[in-house]
Specification:
3-stranded antiparallel beta sheet; Arc Repressor Mutant, subunit A; single chain; 2 domains; mainly alpha; 6 helices
């Protein structure tokens, strides 16, 4: 799950990019200095790492995402599901529903997802 798992620091960094993209690498350095108290070298090290993982790109000094925040969350969820429940959504839902009762609204939302998948 390493490709789509971010530590707290990486998540803060990713949020800065997603909230401001596209942005120049110079602007990213400035934002990271202001918000994370990072030096330029730290910003570029973390950016390079996340670019190598295919999450962001830095082309001609312009930083943008290759994976949107929403796509990233979906990929992260899929990896968790695969890792923890063998890819079985029903097993996950059974474990989740067993730990706390579902509200009527949650049941309705799940039913809509099921109906949409069938249609």
């Amino acid at each position: 799950m390493a490709q789509y798992k971010l530590g707290a620091v990486e998540a803060s960094f990713a949020g800065i990019i997603w909230d401001n993209e596209p942005l120049s690498s110079a602007r990213l350095v400035k934002l990271c200095e202001e918000r994370l108290s990072w030096k330029k070298s730290t910003t570029y090290t973390i950016l390079r790492r996340l670019c190598q993982r295919g999450i962001f790109q830095n082309r001609d000094g312009v930083v943008s995402s290759r994976v949107s925040r929403e796509e990233f969350a979906a990929l992260q969820s899929r990896e968790f599901l695969d890792e923890a429940f063998g890819g079985s959504l029903p097993k996950f839902l059974a474990a989740f529903a067993g730990s706390k009762p579902l509200t009527g609204e949650e049941i309705d939302q799940l039913q809509k997802l099921i109906d949409r998948s069938r249609g």
